[in-house]
Design goal:
This protein has about 475 residues and is an alpha+beta fold. About 50% of the residues lie in helices and about 20% in strands. It has a 5-stranded antiparallel sheet, covered by helices on one side. A 5-stranded mixed sheet has the order 7-9-10-14-13, with helices on one face. It has a two-stranded antiparallel sheet with strand order 6-8. The longest helix is centred in the N-terminal third of the chain and has 58 residues, at about 1-60. It is rod-shaped, with a radius of gyration of 50 Å.
């Protein structure tokens, strides 16, 4: 929370600094433009006042019109090109004008501001003209009081508005930055809750807790913070689901491993408790061997699924014929099928080339065939079909077994999914077979679909994309 406040403060100060610099620059630019326009208007007034006087001087070269002028706040002098005063207005008799440095320019009018000790700041215009054949310059000056009053008022207004604008900008930026960073603060809080949930020692509290959600800003759900909140909500949801699945998987795996380990420990203790006959030793070792094989299958299945989850399930892409792999798989299961008087009907007439891992494909097909034989009653049929359609290789396994209830159908590919037996209500585990089958199919780019009706049977369909020629 300290970091969030610090970030908000830094963003607010940066925003105020930028706005302050922009406002100060804008005021300075406006002041410069206003000052220039005020002086331009003053220069135009001086030129307008000089026109009739120059016209009189040009029309009557012998008259001394300038000496007779005595206008308030307007001062006139008639100069020669060297700057020598030829005539001056009556209000300049005591003190002449200060031309402010360089003399007149005979090629164009010259305007400048001069400081007169007795009259204050004056705007001076030096306007060249010809009086007969002689070049002359009319010097005309007027006070700049009104212009300075306008510019002074603008400066005072700017000095008052700038701090007020910065205060308003600071308040607005503090509100807006705080509102904008609210999803980040909420994200921090939710992340802390997720961390605490992961560390929590109460499984019941963890399982009953709802998925964390960061409120997405309704005013701007598509901006950066809105998308960040939405992305983290998806992350929290996926993480929550993954954690639940992981806990369930660990619990189920522990339960699956506990049974063979208990059998092994019990048989070993009985075997070591007292001397046994050779037949008893052999019988017990057969039980131990069966449980060890079961443990090996579970461990190998877990290893295969771990590789699949990590994206490291390496497949040997080699040319195979799916019909031949299916024939070999049917041959492997035929013995168990005959023992239950189950007929395996094959529709594998078409040769279908494919690129894949033959060993994994055989394991995939074997899973479905073994389940079909296992859950089918005696004197029934298992149909195995292969066809090519719409650029896909479709393999079908159809049995006449007990079927799968609709409420369990969405979960059959979950690892160690436990469902109650319909006849006893006792929990039974689905093991890892279908989970491994789904991982193998996905690794080949394929999909698995299951349709089942209790008491009628199940149909598993595996689709593999065929390479385009």
């Amino acid at each position: 929370m300290i970091y969030a406040r610090s970030l908000r403060l830094r963003m607010m100060l940066l925003f105020c600094a930028v706005v302050g610099v922009l406002l100060a620059g804008s005021h300075l630019a406006i002041y410069a433009l206003l000052s220039r326009e005020v002086h331009v208007q003053l220069d135009r007034q001086l030129q307008g006042a000089a026109r009739p006087i120059i016209a009189d001087l040009v029309s009557d070269p012998n008259e001394e019109d300038v000496n007779e002028l005595n206008l308030p706040d307007e001062y006139f002098e008639l100069l020669d090109p060297s700057g020598r005063v030829l005539q001056r207005s009556m209000n300049l008799r005591e003190r002449p004008l200060d031309l402010g440095g360089a003399g007149p320019d005979m090629s164009r009018p010259v305007f400048r501001t001069v400081n007169d000790p007795s009259r204050g700041r004056l705007r001076l215009a030096l306007i060249p003209f010809r009086r007969g054949t002689e070049p002359r310059v009319l010097a005309l000056a007027a006070p700049t009081r009104e212009a300075e009053l306008v510019l002074g008022g603008f400066r005072r207004m700017s000095l008052g508005l700038l701090p007020l604008s910065l205060l308003v900008m600071g308040a607005i930026s503090a509100w807006y930055v705080g509102r904008s960073l609210r999803p980040v603060a909420e994200l921090t809080r939710q992340a802390a809750q997720m961390t605490e949930r992961i560390r929590s020692s109460s499984p019941e509290a963890r399982d009953q807790a709802q998925t964390l959600q960061i409120p997405v800003p309704s005013s701007s759900p598509q901006d950066e913070l809105g998308r960040l909140a939405s992305t983290f909500n998806q992350l929290f949801e996926r993480l929550d689901v993954t954690l639940r699945q992981l806990r369930q998987f660990v619990s189920d795996a522990s339960h699956e491993l506990r049974t063979p380990l208990s059998v092994l420990r019990g048989e070993t203790e009985i075997l070591l408790s007292e001397p046994r006959t050779t037949e008893e030793y052999q019988k017990t070792l057969q039980v131990i061997d069966g449980e060890l094989k079961k443990l090996s299958r579970i461990v190998e299945g877990l290893f295969t699924l771990a590789l699949a989850d990590a994206g490291q399930l390496r497949l040997a892409s080699e040319p195979v014929y799916l019909n031949e792999v299916l024939e070999e798989t049917c041959a492997l299961v035929s013995g168990r099928a005959r023992a239950k008087s189950i007929a395996i009907e094959r529709t594998l007439n078409e040769e279908l080339p494919y690129f894949g891992d033959e060993a994994f494909l055989r394991q995939l097909f074997l899973t479905f065939l073994e389940n079909a034989v296992k859950y089918s009653p005696p004197n029934t049929r298992v149909r195995v079909g292969l066809e090519k359609m719409d650029g896909m290789a479709r393999v079908r396994f159809e049995d006449q077994g007990v079927g799968i209830p609709p409420e369990h159908l969405p979960h059959i590919f979950e690892r160690f999914y436990r469902a109650a037996k319909p006849e006893t209500g006792e929990a039974q585990s689905g093991g890892l077979g279908l989970s491994i089958a789904q991982a193998i199919a996905r690794a080949h780019g394929g999909t698995i679909e299951c349709k089942s009706l209790p008491g009628v049977g199940s149909t598993f369909t595996v689709d593999f994309p065929l390479p385009t020629s």
